Structure to design on (378 residues):
Protein backbone atom coordinates (compact mmCIF):
# COMPACT_ATOMS: atom_id res chain seq x y z
CA UNK A 1 0.00 0.00 0.00
CA UNK A 2 1.27 3.39 -0.95
CA UNK A 3 1.32 6.28 1.49
CA UNK A 4 1.95 9.95 0.89
CA UNK A 5 3.77 12.25 3.23
CA UNK A 6 4.31 15.94 2.60
CA UNK A 7 7.41 17.69 3.91
CA UNK A 8 7.19 21.45 3.89
CA UNK A 9 10.18 23.73 4.48
CA UNK A 10 9.16 27.26 5.40
CA UNK A 11 10.75 30.56 6.45
CA UNK A 12 13.78 29.99 4.24
CA UNK A 13 15.85 33.18 4.01
CA UNK A 14 18.35 33.90 1.27
CA UNK A 15 21.29 36.27 0.95
CA UNK A 16 19.62 38.68 -1.47
CA UNK A 17 22.81 40.72 -1.90
CA UNK A 18 24.48 37.64 -3.36
CA UNK A 19 21.91 37.31 -6.16
CA UNK A 20 22.58 39.17 -9.38
CA UNK A 21 19.82 41.26 -10.88
CA UNK A 22 20.13 43.55 -13.86
CA UNK A 23 18.22 46.82 -13.60
CA UNK A 24 14.48 46.17 -13.27
CA UNK A 25 14.96 42.46 -13.97
CA UNK A 26 14.67 40.44 -10.74
CA UNK A 27 17.32 37.88 -9.92
CA UNK A 28 16.19 34.33 -9.17
CA UNK A 29 16.80 32.27 -6.04
CA UNK A 30 17.22 28.57 -6.86
CA UNK A 31 16.74 25.61 -4.54
CA UNK A 32 18.00 22.06 -5.24
CA UNK A 33 16.21 19.04 -3.80
CA UNK A 34 17.85 15.66 -3.17
CA UNK A 35 17.18 12.51 -1.17
CA UNK A 36 19.78 10.45 0.65
CA UNK A 37 18.34 6.94 0.62
CA UNK A 38 19.50 3.32 0.30
CA UNK A 39 17.02 2.89 -2.50
CA UNK A 40 16.70 4.99 -5.59
CA UNK A 41 13.92 7.56 -5.41
CA UNK A 42 13.28 9.69 -8.46
CA UNK A 43 12.62 13.39 -8.04
CA UNK A 44 10.95 15.39 -10.75
CA UNK A 45 11.86 19.08 -10.99
CA UNK A 46 14.67 18.80 -8.44
CA UNK A 47 15.76 22.41 -9.10
CA UNK A 48 13.14 25.01 -8.33
CA UNK A 49 12.89 28.77 -8.46
CA UNK A 50 11.74 29.66 -4.95
CA UNK A 51 12.06 33.44 -5.00
CA UNK A 52 13.08 36.57 -6.82
CA UNK A 53 15.39 39.39 -5.74
CA UNK A 54 14.81 43.00 -6.63
CA UNK A 55 15.77 46.27 -4.97
CA UNK A 56 12.93 47.09 -2.60
CA UNK A 57 13.52 50.74 -1.74
CA UNK A 58 13.39 54.10 -3.52
CA UNK A 59 14.37 57.18 -1.48
CA UNK A 60 14.26 60.94 -1.98
CA UNK A 61 14.41 64.22 -0.07
CA UNK A 62 11.56 66.70 -0.54
CA UNK A 63 10.91 70.29 0.48
CA UNK A 64 9.08 71.09 3.73
CA UNK A 65 5.75 71.66 1.98
CA UNK A 66 6.10 68.24 0.31
CA UNK A 67 5.35 69.83 -3.04
CA UNK A 68 8.53 68.75 -4.81
CA UNK A 69 12.15 67.73 -4.55
CA UNK A 70 14.58 69.65 -2.36
CA UNK A 71 17.09 71.89 -4.16
CA UNK A 72 20.56 70.69 -5.11
CA UNK A 73 22.14 72.15 -1.96
CA UNK A 74 19.21 71.39 0.32
CA UNK A 75 17.46 73.98 2.47
CA UNK A 76 19.54 77.14 2.96
CA UNK A 77 20.09 78.62 6.44
CA UNK A 78 21.97 81.86 7.22
CA UNK A 79 24.76 81.55 9.78
CA UNK A 80 23.78 84.86 11.40
CA UNK A 81 20.09 83.97 11.89
CA UNK A 82 19.08 81.69 14.76
CA UNK A 83 16.55 78.94 14.07
CA UNK A 84 14.33 77.60 16.85
CA UNK A 85 11.94 74.67 17.17
CA UNK A 86 8.95 75.62 19.30
CA UNK A 87 5.66 74.03 20.31
CA UNK A 88 3.66 76.40 18.11
CA UNK A 89 5.51 76.82 14.85
CA UNK A 90 8.21 74.93 13.00
CA UNK A 91 8.03 76.50 9.56
CA UNK A 92 11.35 78.35 9.88
CA UNK A 93 13.14 75.32 11.27
CA UNK A 94 11.88 72.77 8.73
CA UNK A 95 14.67 71.20 6.69
CA UNK A 96 12.45 69.05 4.56
CA UNK A 97 10.92 65.61 4.28
CA UNK A 98 12.73 62.30 3.85
CA UNK A 99 10.73 59.86 1.73
CA UNK A 100 10.89 56.07 1.65
CA UNK A 101 8.96 54.31 -1.12
CA UNK A 102 8.54 50.66 -1.98
CA UNK A 103 9.95 49.51 -5.30
CA UNK A 104 7.40 46.67 -5.32
CA UNK A 105 4.18 46.30 -3.38
CA UNK A 106 5.32 44.01 -0.55
CA UNK A 107 8.77 45.41 0.23
CA UNK A 108 7.57 46.94 3.53
CA UNK A 109 6.45 44.36 6.09
CA UNK A 110 5.18 44.49 9.64
CA UNK A 111 6.75 42.14 12.18
CA UNK A 112 3.60 39.98 12.33
CA UNK A 113 0.25 40.16 10.57
CA UNK A 114 -3.12 40.88 12.15
CA UNK A 115 -4.06 37.19 11.95
CA UNK A 116 -2.58 34.00 13.33
CA UNK A 117 0.46 32.91 11.35
CA UNK A 118 0.43 29.18 12.02
CA UNK A 119 -0.73 27.73 8.69
CA UNK A 120 2.16 26.51 6.48
CA UNK A 121 2.09 27.74 2.92
CA UNK A 122 0.02 30.83 3.69
CA UNK A 123 1.38 34.20 2.58
CA UNK A 124 1.21 36.64 5.49
CA UNK A 125 3.22 39.56 4.06
CA UNK A 126 5.07 39.95 7.34
CA UNK A 127 8.76 39.70 8.23
CA UNK A 128 8.05 36.59 10.34
CA UNK A 129 6.14 34.29 7.99
CA UNK A 130 5.09 31.09 9.77
CA UNK A 131 5.14 31.57 13.56
CA UNK A 132 4.71 28.69 16.01
CA UNK A 133 4.41 30.15 19.49
CA UNK A 134 4.39 26.72 21.18
CA UNK A 135 7.98 26.03 20.12
CA UNK A 136 10.57 28.00 22.07
CA UNK A 137 14.32 27.99 22.21
CA UNK A 138 16.69 29.46 24.78
CA UNK A 139 19.74 29.17 22.52
CA UNK A 140 19.30 32.36 20.51
CA UNK A 141 22.57 34.01 21.44
CA UNK A 142 20.97 36.54 23.77
CA UNK A 143 20.26 34.38 26.82
CA UNK A 144 16.50 34.67 26.36
CA UNK A 145 13.81 32.59 24.70
CA UNK A 146 12.52 33.02 21.18
CA UNK A 147 9.43 31.90 19.27
CA UNK A 148 9.98 29.70 16.21
CA UNK A 149 9.73 31.77 13.04
CA UNK A 150 9.30 35.13 14.78
CA UNK A 151 11.37 37.94 13.26
CA UNK A 152 13.07 40.41 15.59
CA UNK A 153 11.06 43.34 14.22
CA UNK A 154 9.26 44.66 11.17
CA UNK A 155 10.90 46.44 8.26
CA UNK A 156 12.86 49.41 9.54
CA UNK A 157 13.81 52.59 7.68
CA UNK A 158 16.97 54.49 8.55
CA UNK A 159 18.21 58.06 8.01
CA UNK A 160 21.90 58.74 8.67
CA UNK A 161 22.73 62.44 8.97
CA UNK A 162 26.33 63.33 8.06
CA UNK A 163 28.57 66.40 8.48
CA UNK A 164 26.13 68.15 10.82
CA UNK A 165 27.96 71.30 12.08
CA UNK A 166 28.64 71.69 15.79
CA UNK A 167 25.86 73.67 17.43
CA UNK A 168 23.13 72.42 15.07
CA UNK A 169 20.44 70.24 16.65
CA UNK A 170 18.29 67.96 14.50
CA UNK A 171 14.77 66.69 15.18
CA UNK A 172 12.61 64.15 13.32
CA UNK A 173 8.92 63.32 13.53
CA UNK A 174 8.02 60.36 15.73
CA UNK A 175 5.80 58.99 12.99
CA UNK A 176 5.11 59.60 9.33
CA UNK A 177 3.63 62.97 8.35
CA UNK A 178 2.28 61.54 5.11
CA UNK A 179 1.78 57.99 3.87
CA UNK A 180 -0.28 55.82 1.57
CA UNK A 181 -3.21 56.09 3.99
CA UNK A 182 -3.08 59.77 4.93
CA UNK A 183 -1.87 62.66 2.78
CA UNK A 184 -0.41 65.93 4.04
CA UNK A 185 -3.27 68.24 4.96
CA UNK A 186 -5.43 65.52 6.51
CA UNK A 187 -5.69 64.36 10.10
CA UNK A 188 -2.93 61.88 11.03
CA UNK A 189 -5.35 59.13 11.96
CA UNK A 190 -3.07 56.11 11.79
CA UNK A 191 0.69 55.67 11.69
CA UNK A 192 2.31 53.58 9.02
CA UNK A 193 5.71 53.82 10.71
CA UNK A 194 6.88 54.96 14.14
CA UNK A 195 10.22 56.10 15.53
CA UNK A 196 12.29 53.54 17.45
CA UNK A 197 15.20 54.03 19.82
CA UNK A 198 17.80 52.51 17.48
CA UNK A 199 18.05 50.23 14.48
CA UNK A 200 18.68 47.14 16.65
CA UNK A 201 16.51 48.03 19.67
CA UNK A 202 14.14 45.13 20.43
CA UNK A 203 10.40 45.41 20.05
CA UNK A 204 8.21 44.97 23.09
CA UNK A 205 6.97 42.39 23.85
CA UNK A 206 9.92 40.43 22.51
CA UNK A 207 7.90 37.29 21.80
CA UNK A 208 4.22 38.09 21.17
CA UNK A 209 1.61 35.42 20.59
CA UNK A 210 1.17 34.23 17.02
CA UNK A 211 -2.13 36.09 16.74
CA UNK A 212 -0.64 39.41 17.82
CA UNK A 213 -2.01 42.29 15.76
CA UNK A 214 1.35 43.99 15.69
CA UNK A 215 3.25 46.06 18.20
CA UNK A 216 4.28 49.61 18.88
CA UNK A 217 8.06 49.95 19.19
CA UNK A 218 9.47 52.09 21.97
CA UNK A 219 9.86 55.74 20.99
CA UNK A 220 11.59 58.69 22.64
CA UNK A 221 9.55 61.77 21.70
CA UNK A 222 9.88 65.24 23.13
CA UNK A 223 6.24 65.90 23.93
CA UNK A 224 6.64 69.68 24.06
CA UNK A 225 7.57 69.89 20.40
CA UNK A 226 5.21 69.17 17.56
CA UNK A 227 5.16 69.30 13.79
CA UNK A 228 2.21 70.27 11.62
CA UNK A 229 3.46 70.10 7.99
CA UNK A 230 0.18 71.58 6.79
CA UNK A 231 -2.01 69.15 8.76
CA UNK A 232 -5.13 71.18 9.46
CA UNK A 233 -7.01 68.81 11.74
CA UNK A 234 -6.35 66.04 14.20
CA UNK A 235 -3.44 65.73 16.60
CA UNK A 236 -0.13 67.27 15.56
CA UNK A 237 2.78 64.92 15.06
CA UNK A 238 5.42 64.84 17.81
CA UNK A 239 9.12 65.28 17.12
CA UNK A 240 12.17 63.88 18.87
CA UNK A 241 15.84 64.96 18.96
CA UNK A 242 18.48 63.08 16.98
CA UNK A 243 21.63 62.32 18.97
CA UNK A 244 24.56 63.86 17.06
CA UNK A 245 28.13 62.66 17.56
CA UNK A 246 29.93 66.00 17.93
CA UNK A 247 33.28 64.57 16.81
CA UNK A 248 31.94 63.13 13.54
CA UNK A 249 28.81 65.22 12.93
CA UNK A 250 26.79 62.03 12.45
CA UNK A 251 23.36 61.09 13.79
CA UNK A 252 20.84 58.31 13.08
CA UNK A 253 17.04 58.11 13.13
CA UNK A 254 15.13 54.83 12.58
CA UNK A 255 11.43 54.14 12.10
CA UNK A 256 9.61 50.77 12.01
CA UNK A 257 6.77 49.85 9.67
CA UNK A 258 3.59 49.08 11.68
CA UNK A 259 0.99 49.07 8.86
CA UNK A 260 1.13 48.22 5.16
CA UNK A 261 -1.07 47.70 2.13
CA UNK A 262 0.33 44.73 0.16
CA UNK A 263 -1.83 45.64 -2.83
CA UNK A 264 -0.16 48.97 -3.60
CA UNK A 265 3.18 50.79 -3.57
CA UNK A 266 3.54 52.24 -0.07
CA UNK A 267 5.17 55.63 0.55
CA UNK A 268 6.05 57.08 3.95
CA UNK A 269 7.38 60.57 4.66
CA UNK A 270 9.08 61.89 7.81
CA UNK A 271 9.78 65.51 8.74
CA UNK A 272 13.25 66.81 9.66
CA UNK A 273 13.97 70.04 11.57
CA UNK A 274 17.03 72.04 12.57
CA UNK A 275 17.62 74.30 15.57
CA UNK A 276 20.67 76.45 16.40
CA UNK A 277 21.74 79.72 18.02
CA UNK A 278 23.58 82.04 15.61
CA UNK A 279 27.03 83.29 16.58
CA UNK A 280 28.68 84.54 13.40
CA UNK A 281 31.52 86.13 15.37
CA UNK A 282 32.57 82.69 16.54
CA UNK A 283 31.83 81.15 13.13
CA UNK A 284 29.03 79.07 14.64
CA UNK A 285 27.46 77.09 13.22
CA UNK A 286 30.24 76.44 10.75
CA UNK A 287 29.25 76.99 7.09
CA UNK A 288 28.87 73.96 4.88
CA UNK A 289 26.45 71.35 3.57
CA UNK A 290 25.25 68.36 5.56
CA UNK A 291 23.66 65.29 4.05
CA UNK A 292 21.36 62.37 4.75
CA UNK A 293 21.66 58.75 3.64
CA UNK A 294 18.42 56.73 3.50
CA UNK A 295 18.24 52.93 3.63
CA UNK A 296 16.59 49.87 5.12
CA UNK A 297 17.60 48.86 8.64
CA UNK A 298 19.21 47.29 10.46
CA UNK A 299 22.57 47.14 8.72
CA UNK A 300 24.48 45.40 11.52
CA UNK A 301 28.23 45.28 11.97
CA UNK A 302 30.16 42.03 11.97
CA UNK A 303 33.26 42.09 14.14
CA UNK A 304 33.49 45.85 13.84
CA UNK A 305 33.17 45.86 10.05
CA UNK A 306 30.14 46.90 7.95
CA UNK A 307 27.63 44.16 7.19
CA UNK A 308 28.38 42.95 3.66
CA UNK A 309 26.99 40.56 1.08
CA UNK A 310 29.72 38.07 2.03
CA UNK A 311 28.71 38.24 5.68
CA UNK A 312 25.10 37.71 4.65
CA UNK A 313 25.88 34.24 3.33
CA UNK A 314 27.09 33.04 6.74
CA UNK A 315 24.60 31.68 9.27
CA UNK A 316 24.45 33.62 12.52
CA UNK A 317 22.75 33.06 15.88
CA UNK A 318 23.22 36.67 17.00
CA UNK A 319 22.53 38.87 13.98
CA UNK A 320 18.98 40.15 13.63
CA UNK A 321 16.19 39.00 11.32
CA UNK A 322 15.73 40.82 9.01
CA UNK A 323 19.06 42.50 8.23
CA UNK A 324 20.30 44.48 5.26
CA UNK A 325 23.48 45.56 3.50
CA UNK A 326 22.19 48.51 1.50
CA UNK A 327 24.82 51.17 0.77
CA UNK A 328 23.04 54.07 -0.99
CA UNK A 329 24.67 57.43 -1.59
CA UNK A 330 24.10 60.58 0.49
CA UNK A 331 21.67 63.34 -0.47
CA UNK A 332 22.17 67.03 0.35
CA UNK A 333 19.82 68.09 3.13
CA UNK A 334 20.79 71.63 4.20
CA UNK A 335 23.47 74.28 3.77
CA UNK A 336 24.67 76.81 6.35
CA UNK A 337 25.72 79.95 4.43
CA UNK A 338 27.85 82.89 5.59
CA UNK A 339 26.11 86.22 6.05
CA UNK A 340 28.08 88.47 3.66
CA UNK A 341 27.50 91.72 1.78
CA UNK A 342 29.00 92.85 -1.52
CA UNK A 343 30.80 96.22 -1.79
CA UNK A 344 31.19 97.71 -5.24
CA UNK A 345 34.37 99.64 -6.17
CA UNK A 346 33.57 101.26 -9.53
CA UNK A 347 37.14 102.43 -10.13
CA UNK A 348 40.39 101.37 -8.45
CA UNK A 349 43.88 102.57 -9.49
CA UNK A 350 47.40 103.00 -8.16
CA UNK A 351 48.26 105.76 -10.64
CA UNK A 352 49.83 109.03 -9.45
CA UNK A 353 47.46 111.71 -8.18
CA UNK A 354 45.23 109.25 -6.29
CA UNK A 355 47.17 109.16 -3.05
CA UNK A 356 44.47 109.54 -0.38
CA UNK A 357 46.95 109.29 2.49
CA UNK A 358 48.66 112.60 1.61
CA UNK A 359 45.98 114.61 -0.12
CA UNK A 360 42.39 114.05 1.06
CA UNK A 361 39.65 115.90 2.90
CA UNK A 362 36.71 114.50 4.90
CA UNK A 363 33.31 115.97 4.09
CA UNK A 364 30.52 114.54 6.30
CA UNK A 365 30.40 110.85 5.41
CA UNK A 366 32.49 110.75 2.26
CA UNK A 367 36.07 111.33 1.17
CA UNK A 368 36.95 113.95 -1.46
CA UNK A 369 40.22 113.47 -3.31
CA UNK A 370 41.46 117.01 -3.89
CA UNK A 371 43.84 116.07 -6.69
CA UNK A 372 41.31 114.20 -8.80
CA UNK A 373 38.14 115.97 -7.80
CA UNK A 374 35.97 112.84 -7.30
CA UNK A 375 34.19 111.59 -4.17
CA UNK A 376 34.08 108.20 -2.45
CA UNK A 377 31.64 107.42 0.34
CA UNK A 378 33.45 106.79 3.62
Amino acid sequence: MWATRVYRIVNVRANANGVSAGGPTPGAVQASLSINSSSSIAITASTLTVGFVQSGLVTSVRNASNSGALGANGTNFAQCTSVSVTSTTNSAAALGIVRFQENFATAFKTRVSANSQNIPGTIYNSESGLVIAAINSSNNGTGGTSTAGLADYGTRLKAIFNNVPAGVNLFVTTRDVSNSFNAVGTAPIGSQAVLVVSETAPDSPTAPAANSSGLQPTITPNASQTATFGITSGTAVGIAPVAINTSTGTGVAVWEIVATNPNQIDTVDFGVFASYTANAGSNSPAPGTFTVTLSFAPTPSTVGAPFTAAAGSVASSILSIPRFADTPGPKNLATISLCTSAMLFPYVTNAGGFDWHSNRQHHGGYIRNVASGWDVFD
